[in-house]
Amino acid sequence: MSVLEQRLARLFGFEYTVMLGRARSGLVALIETVHDVYKPSVPVLLPENICPVLVTAIRAGGGTAVTVPVSPENGLPTDQAFIQVMNRTDNPGIIIPTHLYGFQGHYPETVKLAREKGWFILENDANAIRIQNNDRPFGDALLVSFGYAKPIEAGSGGALLTNDLSLAKTLQKRVDSYAFLDDRALALEEDTMLKRRALRNAQGDSAKLLDQICQTETDLSCFRFDHKNTDHLLAILDHFPEERTKRIEKNALWNQALAPLDNILQPVKLKQPVPWRHIRNVPNRRHHFAQSLWKCNMDAGINYRSLWRELPTGYLTGTPSSSDLWGESVLNLWVTKDYDQMHIKQAAEILMEAADEL
């Protein structure tokens, strides 16, 4: 293995590393690799509110995306939710417990049942909570991203970590056949991201535009790692402990500033080793609070809605939740370097004024 691969394996507690152009490319390669094992199809169980490009990647690999409902309080599936969907699925495949938003999910019963029934467990750690974490990974493999807006932000790239040498070699051979992430692909990715954001912010539903977005995303699923980016990624890994500390500090500043609003903008009661954003649950009139920040040119995110609202008919199987409680209540606030203490204080004041208007 290269120096980069060895370092990532050590940091995340695995033996082998498969480098990727995009993290989702590892999911495509895994589905393609295990397809002969899980005949006639590969069901892939994933949270109902995950980034939709994971679903288009599943489609690109020939798998079937099966949604798992999430908690309206924290946006993560419960242990029992995964178990219920597993028990309703006819044949085993891949299950993806995901540490959404940098929150640490615990799935002991899911892991136990998956082992008994022959499921492949792919721990999705896009926000790198497992890096030098005392809690060991529980999956057969772990997926991490170094892409846009991730805590380890190299602009592109990802890695799949595993202790199975044979699997690592097979996946690497398959990934080596993928294309590099070039300027055209990057431009298309940005275009689809902006179109999705516009649909979401407008609370819109254009079937034709959604079909176009998803087809483009499906076509942008398979990329290999460009080793010219190795030194850049190694440098970012060097600075990750500092980045993590800053994010934790910013998260604490948000908690302090918003403490008077805890009953309205409810904190998520889960451990968050590496904050992706400062997350609040706003059960009543979330959009009112988001718009109050947008009007003052301050960032606020309202992703992710249920996948059943983000994808066309035919992309998903499973049972949609009767209502998208988490998607209608989540509010993301930034923990990046442009949000200093004064900026956070100003945002909190705007949110307090918005609360007074109710």
> What portion of the residues fall into strands of 2 or more residues?
5-15%
Average residue-wise pLDDT: 93
* Number of separate strands: 13
Morphology call: globular
Distance between the termini: 58 Å
Total count of helical runs of at least 4 residues: 12
Major sheet: arrangement of strands = 1-7-6-5-4-2-3-12
Rounded to an integer, what's the Rg over CA atoms? 20 Å
Structural class: alpha/beta
**What is the H/E order?**
HEHEHEHEHEEEHEHHEHEEHHEEH
- Spans of at least 5 consecutive residues whose pLDDT stays below 50 are none
Helical residue percent band: 40-55%
Query: What kind of sheet is the major sheet?
Result: 8 strands, mixed
What descriptors fit this protein?
12 helices; three-stranded antiparallel beta sheet; alpha/beta; 358 residues; eight-stranded mixed beta sheet
What does this structure look like?
There is one protein chain. With 358 residues, the protein is of the alpha/beta class. Helix content is 42%, strand content 13%. It contains twelve helices and 13 strands. The strands form three sheets. It has an eight-stranded mixed sheet, with helices on both faces. The protein has a three-stranded antiparallel sheet with strand order 10-11-13. The chain has a two-stranded parallel sheet with strand order 8-9. Strand 4 (94-95), helix 5 and strand 5 form a beta-alpha-beta unit. Helix 2 packs across helix 6 (165-175) and helix 9 (230-258) packs across helix 12. The chain is globular, with a radius of gyration of 20 Å. It starts with a helix and ends with a helix. The model has no long low-confidence stretch (mean pLDDT 93).
